[in-house]
Amino acid sequence: MKYETQRVALPFFAVAMALFALQVIFGILAATVYVLPEFMVEMVPFHIMRMSHTNLLIVWLLIGFMGCTYFLMPEEAETEIHSPLIAYIQLAIFAVAGAGALVSYQFGIHEGREFLEQPLWSKILITISFLLFLYNTSMTLLRGRRTAINSILMLGLWLAAIFWFFAFYNPSNLALDKLYWWWIVHVWVEGVWELIMASLLAYLLIKLTGVDREIIEKWLYVIIGLALFSGLLGTGHHYYWIGAPGYWQPIGSFFSTLEVAPFFAMVMFAFYMFWKGRRNHPNKAAMLWTLGSATVAFFGAGVWGFMHTLHWVNYYTHGTQVTAAHGHLAFYGAYVMMVLAVVTYAMPQLRRIQPFNQIINMWSFWLMTASMCFMTFTLTFAGVVQTHLQRVMGINYMEVQEQLSLFYMMRLGAGCVVAVAAVVFLWAVFGPAREELPAGETGVANA
Amino acid sequence: MMESLSRSAARNIFFGGSLFFFLAFAGLTAHSHWYMVNVSTDKEGLTESVAAGKHVWEKHSCINCHSLIGEGAYFAPELGNVWTRYGGRENPDAARAGIKGWIKAQPLNVPGRRQMPKFDLSEEELDNLVDFFRWADSINTQGWPPHPVG
Question: What are phi and psi of B71, to 5 degrees?
């Protein structure tokens, strides 16, 4: 850690990880209701569990992105953060907005559009906090060195904020509501968030592999170019059946097929740099999360997305468990794993010690990744069976759901392993530091 | 391929291409907006009651269990075409009574069955909600869903 103000990232990571733990808990509660339908039905109904689960994910990822930005910005810009005080204040505002929304949900106070359930006051606080964050980081960038990595990261964050304003527009016409709702939901996760992900990936690869910045930054532009060229018109895959014109079917199918390209490029990029790099960085766990993120994002977002994106396939699979399978692995690979990679990379520096607890960190990687994959497989099987029974054979929804109970039980089991893995991860990064390096790597450390 | 491409060329391609695709996306969205208002949805039928029904739908976060034209939580049945499923296109009065009766009967308390909570909706709210379902059912969804079960 070269710059003192990089420490600002620490409380962001702490809050993000606490909310991550809560997100997993609400996920397990909701998965339990799939298996035992009467579970907690009076206390916390399913719809409250689900909005808590999804909202916590979005909020902790955003706080995580902020932490990552505060950590890498001084190094990239070669200057201290403009104002650590503003950083702490905007974190407090964001945490109050997120936690306040979560508490209000438990009392049935919420707005009613999926993922945008935050009450108006919470939305306004989120906006204020995000603008303070953008001001603080942009001022830092303007004062310091501009690199492709910090410029693209800031571009992604600014665009995320701009598209967020569609959250305040809710027309009475349901079709219009859906049209613009996707301008946040799709344009975030399959557009501007990919800018954030790709720049974090590029930063980690420079640090961990030591490959030339010139090469890494060129790849970065190619990847985000592919992301936006395919992702913007790729929104069309959400416009097939909501009352939009029929031309979205060929456009959406074509461009969302191309949405695989940026993720494929990221896997190529990550492994190519890994093999090319000569630096033997002692933080093996961070390298593992970095490569893992690129790989799982390719499968979760790329392959699983492509699987049901062609309009003549989506006609049958739209709104089934296939979508749930894709959503889980895509978010996990592209965004959860990327933030965990930066946390794993940054924590030794933030705690001013050598890379530590790497073995248990890597255990959490394999446990979490394997169980998320297993969860995705069970939901995919459930979705395929559902598609056939309900959409082809025309069997009633509730009858079909009974046929899926085995898959839901296995999904719950996978979720419990994710919870164990999350605890192991938290212990690895925040717990007492024990061994510094994996066995067999000591020679490198001492050299 | 990557060797012959310089970093600044890559950057220029990114900015130029992104701007082009954004403008294309915005233009098609503007046309879709016009199309949705004037062609694919029932402009005259979008009454105050339908708007109030959408508000009832949102107030109780129905989307976090049900799906509406395929979007939502997949935990409970699709409701975008519930009006068709209840035979509303042939017999609107019976469909209205049927949907309202179903909501009022919750929770069913059938052991081992997913429970819909009791939402204490007034008669007016129930009618608004049914008007909203009826309006949503009339959206031209390009033939989706493939089967009336949703």
Answer: -115, 135
Q: State the residue range of the domain holding B88.
A: 46-137
**DSSP state letters, A147-193:** -HHHHHHHHHHHHHHHHHGGGG---SSHHHHHHHHHHHHHHIIIIIH
Give the pLDDT score at A444.
Answer: 47
**Residue B106 contacts A, CB cutoff 8 Å:** no
**Closest Cα in chain A, distance from residue B3 (Å):** 9
A248 touches chain B (CB under 8 A): yes
Cβ-based contacts of A190 with chain B (< 8 Å): none
For A:356-415, CB contacts with B below 8 A are: 390-392, 394-398, 401
Are residues B98 and B58 both part of a single domain? yes
Average pLDDT of the residues in A322-338: 98
Q: Which amino acid is at A160?
A: A
pLDDT tens column, B56-96: 999 999 999 999 999 999 999 999 999 999 999 999 999 99
Do B129 and B97 share a structural domain? yes
Whether the Cβ atoms of residue A335 and residue A390 lie closer than 8 Å to each other: no
Question: Does ipTM surpass 0.90 in this model?
Answer: yes
The predicted pLDDT at position A440 comes to: 58
Quick one: B94 and B111 in the same domain? Answer: yes
pLDDT band at residue A278, thresholds of 50, 70 and 90?
A: confident
In angstroms, the separation between the Cα of residue B46 and the nearest Cα of chain A is 7
Same domain, B70 and B130: yes
